[in-house]
Amino acid sequence: MPLSRRQHTVLGLIIVCAFQFLFFYTPILVADALAKEQDNITIDAVNKSEADPIVAALINQANAQTDLTTADIVASTTTTTEKTVAAEPKVKVIGTSTHVITAYNSDPAQTDSTPCLTANGFDVCKHGVEDTIAANFLKFGTKVRIPDLYGDRIFVVRDRMNRRFSDRVDIWMLEKTDARQFGVQTARIEVVEVIN
Prior knowledge:
2 domains, Barwin-like endoglucanases
């Protein structure tokens, strides 16, 4: 018996819906059924454990291993935290004062013919870390913090400025744009001693 165009379309839609159900919903239903079966097996094992001491011992051993693993994780985390705390150096503030602070780069126009070398011979370009300052009123190697601008970050005096800047601090920066953006600021500095 030949089908009309409308019947052919309806039959096609029924076939498409059947395939969609088989390929998309059936795997989900199977997964749910397997999960329920696994839960039933676990419940059966617990129920059997009340009658069978061997099954009970195995369940208790599995639970003990889980508890031991949790205890190991807690102990490991505590040890790691203690090591981190112990690794942080203690800092003693020796003195504080307020100064004008500027920034500079390893540019011959701002320094001299050896722009990467500081006044004490330290190569800031090779070091590449912005922890060097120039200050005429502090000895080389003095450690300084600028808490209002940089928090607990420690800078080291490795360079000098022009003699006319007897009370100024100059921070070495990698990028010229960063130094320009820093501009001229006034902030409190702390001379510190690092205690290991």
